[in-house]
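Please go through the sequence line and token line underneath and see whether the fold suits the sequence. See right below:
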Amino acid sequence: MKLSLLLPLLFCTTMLGAQPDQYNSELMNWLATQYTLTGATFPWGDTENEMLGRFFPYNESSAERLTREPGDLGFTQVQSIRINEPLLNGWDAGWNGNNRETISLGDKMLWVIYIRAIGPEGDGKVTLIAERNDTYAKEVEVTVELSTEWKRFFIPFEILTRTHPVGGMTMGMHLGHQAQTVEIGGMAILNYGPDYDLEQFPNDLSAGNYAGFEADAAWRAPAAARIENLRKADMNFTVLNEEGSPAANASVEVRMQRHDFDFGTAVKASRFPLGRNYSPAFVDRITNLDGEGHGFSSIVFENDFKWPAWEDEWISTNQQTRRTLEYLNERNIDIRGHVLLWPGWGNMPDRMQENANNPSYLLDELDKHLVDFLETEDFDQYIKDWDVLNEINTNTDLAAALRGTPGHPTGREVYANTFKRARELAPDAKLYINDYITLSLKNTEGAVIYEQYKDFIQEIIDADAPIQGVGFQAHLSASPNSIYEVLETYDDFYDSFGLEAKITEFDMPTSVSEELAATYMKDFMTVTFSHESMTGFMFWNFWDVDTWQNKGANLFNEDWSRTLPGHTFKDLVFGEWWTNEDLTTDAEGKTSTRGFKGTYEITVDCGESATHTFTVDVVEDKSIILDCAQLVSTTLPELPAGSVIAYPNPATGPWSVTNNLSKILKGELYDVNGRQLWNGNFAPGTTEFDLELPTGVYNLRLSTQTQATNLQLLRKK
């Protein structure tokens, strides 16, 4: 009976809602006066009653509609929703409704909503969403913290996923993050069409909305101290003249070339030479971000190494991906592997789901895939670290299919076994787990899914699997995470597991202003760079044209002009965190400096004899002897005899350099005056080393981080 009465009531209120009510009329007039925004339509309804009547709670503990006096806030209708306990996922409880009018691709929307938390908990957290109701592709996804005071949010956004038919777009909120009572009022959803610029709209998701933005915030001084301690090293130089005596007043130039800490980005292999989407400008920025020849030190393929993408050659051909690996390796750019196993049916080849009831088949196919990537293709020779597992909290299909089968009582045993198999096939790579459920969803210690994730990692560790790193995805919302909560998450995972970590996928939504993106990105990078567990920070692409979805913190616009976040990144990574020094030795031939850990080009002036330049890796306090007679650093012990062989020698053409070790060697070629002529890498096996060089004697220095050797190469006519 209640339902039969409700449907005519909704129909009647829809028909009667021909004109905005007082609240919506006053809101429209205010927006027209303050922001010159006119001509809006109301795809969900233009009265308070109609608007709230189109939205319904789900999985709530209780819900009721309330009436209030308009007062200073202006609205009279309130929706109250109670959630008694936190749920596994925020979206497991919520409140949403669908559009009554078509919304076109490119339309500019403004969402106005008041929210507060009034339960005994004293606070609340909700995720505001606007999405396609078929694929759940997001137009908006913003997680906000609530207090007992009403907070009005203005959320402008552009329709980017498609033209939404009637009933095809869902807006509302996820409420399952915690136990809470949430009240909602004053909600309006306005469509201003395609012609306005989003910058004209009000947007109160500003820097003041994240904890820790203040210039004197309590986290800043400790972070700066940690950076000074963790990310810097002393460089002590002793310069000897050609007679072997201390060289007083000798000039030593210290020029940083790259960070030891990885700063990187996701890329498409097809953007590189001979690729179907080759972009010379893109490739140039990879190695020349600052305009002075310094670029990203690490990349990760966004899709090319995903299992079905490799088999079906989604964007790049496999041959192109192989060429790009060699191209990047030759330029000494670290490569992350993403991903060996993403265990949802939609992220594996179709045949896996088709054989869901055949556990032996599933395990055999997984093993074939690992062997193909890590042994047959031998990608391990290029890859510094692998995401062995991706998003296991929400991609549970494979574990569910294996649950209860021999050796898999929970099904999750496949996770530890995948780590073990990856180690057998890839003995040198760091092995990571990667997920979005912490930072991307603003889940913190105590949240159900946060604790579940930690339990899953502990299961892998307890099974003696060789997990070495935690990858934190950071697809952040327009209401940025508290810096304090970010730091607490880093601390909690490191204290719990002692594993290294990386930010593996960083971006911010397009709705964020460049000012907020630049401000927050700097703070987020700073707290990350300051943490002892962290070894890298990866953008999930950096150019507007290639970005998957969230362009808010990209470094470059479509036309390659630098964004405000791009300037901030350059000033931070190649400025504030960069070391260039001009030093002069004392009477004992000594001088020193303290700089950021990384690779340096050192130039010493040996007087009338010559100026010598060489490259050195500084990852800890280092004492370096600059012997003008020999110009040989004595800081690294020798590689084992026979580790590297070059032949023929002398040579009239290319040398064949055979690396008999199982690891990549860094190579540097110098002439007799100590000038560096080339640097790159030698993979295990034989490499043709072909450079156009005049007749003469050359020194080829080959090194790992702990050992080095020198080969004398002779070029003859």
Notes: The chain has three domains: 2-205, 261-540, 636-717. The domain at 636-717 is CATH 2.60.40.3080 (Immunoglobulin-like).
